[in-house]
Amino acid sequence: MTEQRKVTTGHLLALLTILIWGTTFISTKILLIDFTPVEILFFRFLIGYVVLFMLYPRPLRTASFREELLFMAAGLCGVTLYFLIENIALVYTHAASVGVIVSIGPFLTAVLAHFFLKGEKLHTRFIAGFGVALTGIILIGLNGSLILRLNPLGDLLAFLAPAVWAVYSVLMRTISQRNYSTIGATRKVFFYGLLFMTPALFLFEFNLDFTRLTNMVNLSNLLFLGLGASALCFVTWNRAVGLLGAVKTSVYIYLVPVITVGASALILQERITWVTVLGTGLALGGSLISEGKSKIATTSDRDTPSYVESG
């Protein structure tokens, strides 16, 4: 695969991932009628793990216990902690606040990558794009209310969510340099994510009432989250991180609220205000600015190995 083809493939995979992740809130919102947040989280990743196991049933053996620790940490951060912290934050603070705070994830990823990954240095275009995109995301979160309500505990938790996702992104970039199968690596991450999630099942409301799945609305939405948002999207996202790097891939997170707004209007018939339109434009513009090439980034990225073809 040529360098240009790798870059193009990485961007397409990241865009596909964000298009799906930007609509998952609809399925989650529907499922919350009959399921608790931790139940949704557990079932979606269990489905995802089963699917990935069917696609890649071979054991993924690591070269050392140190490399195994990378997968354990990735499962803890990217699956267990990120989603649990985000869901708990929503209990204590407003969704708009969480949406705005979580959007700093790409910046935190860039900072960590700057210090821990070779060839992923911060540059002025990225910082400028972050500022523009964050302004747009704040406007989308406000949606014309002009008041962003703050809650210390909830907002602190919301800040921790993108922090652990940044750690996950750096870990997956490190794992990608080991040339493991993308599907096999993602499956192993899911395994540890589910393992570390097990104690939370006893701390929060959780039951195995499968009669809820006889409702086709529940079943279809859970399958969408498990097959699409988990099994497919984590593979495509991890592959994109391997091809583009943690920083460039993370920029696509800016588009999540944009897609969410569009999906809300189309599916839930929610009203779009001029403030939302302005915020959407700024978020899109900021992502384009951050994606601008920098001599440091483009030169050193060529020296960084990526995932081998999955199989």
TrEMBL record:
User: Could you tell me which InterPro entries the record lists for this protein?
Assistant: AA-Vitamin_Transporters (IPR050638), EamA_dom (IPR000620), EmrE-like (IPR037185)
Gene Ontology CC annotations of this record? plasma membrane
**Transmembrane annotation, as ranges:** 12-32, 38-57, 69-85, 91-117, 126-150, 156-176, 188-204, 216-237, 249-268, 274-292
Tell me the ranges covered by the EamA domain, including all copies. Answer: 9-141, 153-289
**Residue runs in coiled coils:** none
Q: Does the keyword Transmembrane helix apply?
A: yes
Write the record's keywords in alphabetical order, separated by commas. Answer: Cell membrane, Membrane, Transmembrane, Transmembrane helix
Q: Give its localization.
A: Cell membrane
Record-linked SUPFAM superfamilies: Multidrug resistance efflux transporter EmrE (SSF103481)
Membrane topology value: Multi-pass membrane protein
Record Pfam families? EamA (PF00892)
Q: Which family does it belong to?
A: Belongs to the EamA transporter family.
Protein name, entry field: EamA family transporter
